[in-house]
Amino acid sequence: MSFSKLGLSPLILQALAEQGYEKPTTIQQKAIPIILNGKNLIAAAQTGTGKTASFVLPILQQLSQGQTQRKKRIRALILVPTRELAIQVDENIKAYGKHLNLKSMAMFGGVDYAPQKQALIEGVDILVATPGRLIDLYGQHAVHFEEVETLVLDEADRMLDMGFIEDINKILARLPENIQNLLFSATLSNPVRELARTAIDEAEEISIAKHSASKSNISQWLVTVDKDMKSSLLAHLLNENPWPQVLIFIETRHGAAKLVAQLEKRGIAAEAIHSGRNQASRARVLDEFKQGKVKYLVATGVAARGIDIDDLPCVINYDLPYPADDYVHRIGRTGRAGAQGEAVSLLSKDDFKNLCMIESRLGHLIERRVVEGFEPRKPVPTSILNYVPKHKREQ
Ligand code: AMP
């Protein structure tokens, strides 16, 4: 299937070709015709699936056929949870719409109001905004909603995790009736469904399975342990559990090399891949792991990013990653194709902040276990589910 079959205009197709996109991703194939048809949509899809283009392209197409913008009147509104995502989505709009005469803007808190107000006066067709700042500017009459045709709630689960529900409801109440509503979320958890019920009626629903955090065939658990006992706990777990192969994630390359040596001392053969090893030896180790010759592979998150290994029976997080999406991607390497997978994380007090972000991202706490003989001296508190890191707080 090619992009031209989706009914996109030549100017958009040209921009996509310039981006080097050859064919639409699954979500793009499914979502674009629905949106171009004017239907409402609820989509379960994660970052990395091409979800942004799946709503940006049809919005560009629809707006390019309509009237031009008026002062302070936006025509499409995309709500996102963070400043980073606002910037990223806006960059995509500008890239895909570079041959069209449409204006877009990223709006978020923590910066001056004046340039955002000025841009709105000059005219914005597509506004990508975090909810708090948008409500502020709406209150100051800097932006009006009566010409909005399309609303997108992007990463709805994250917006809810970050406590934006009140702001979102205020915005929904001020939007015109009968606009097209699109909701994208990594997971369609109960709170997301609740939001969808209030925001959207009669929507088509699609679901793209990729690294889904809600995959029910992944059993996730944490083992609480003191930091200095992690390597012996890991050796214990590898000896006690019948996992045929395990991918072990660790934060630093120094840590990876040290861990392999510590496991070796306990009679466990493991290999490591990290940026400190040359390309040839990394490729060899990876190949041996894929062939099943290496049973335990220790990898830094960075080194593991480019590896296409999934369908693993077990992944272990030696420490908890930041950002939380990395956790979701890591556990997505197990439990593929209906097989049962296990995702185990070793949790010490130092991992607490990252744990809060991960559990907030998932929208639930992960089961905790204590292994006899490894009971922690320093307990790890229960996380706060709507935890938001300081630099992400905008209002
Ligand atoms: P997203 O899931 O929207 O965060 O997109 C993930 C990445 O895929 C982004 O870097 C996009 O630029 C890229 N991308 C989106 N659609 C396509 C496509 N059809 N072909 C190639 N890359 C794409």
Could you give a short description of this structure?
The chain is an alpha/beta fold and 395 residues long. The protein contains 15 helices and 14 strands. Helix 12 links the parallel strand 10 and strand 11.
Outline the structure in words.
This protein has 395 residues and is of the alpha/beta class. It folds into 2 domains: 205 residues, Rossmann fold; 176 residues, P-loop containing nucleotide triphosphate hydrolases (Rossmann fold), CATH 3.40.50.300. Helices cover 39% and strands 17% of the residues. It has 15 helices and 14 strands. The strands form 2 sheets. Strands 3-4-2-5-6-1-7 form a 7-stranded parallel β-sheet, sandwiched between helices. It has a 7-stranded parallel β-sheet with strand order 10-11-9-12-13-8-14, sandwiched between helices. Helix 3 crosses helix 4, helix 6 crosses helix 8 and helix 14 packs across helix 15. The longest helix has 15 residues. The chain is elongated, with a radius of gyration of 23 Å. It starts with 9 loop residues before the first helix and ends in a 26-residue tail after the last strand. About 1% of the residues have low confidence. Bound molecules: adenosine monophosphate (AMP).
- The coarse overall form would be elongated
Total number of strands? 14
N-C termini distance:
44 Å
- Determine and state the CATH class of the largest domain: Alpha Beta
- CATH T-level fold name of the largest domain: Rossmann fold
Tell me the name of the CATH homologous superfamily of the largest domain. P-loop containing nucleotide triphosphate hydrolases
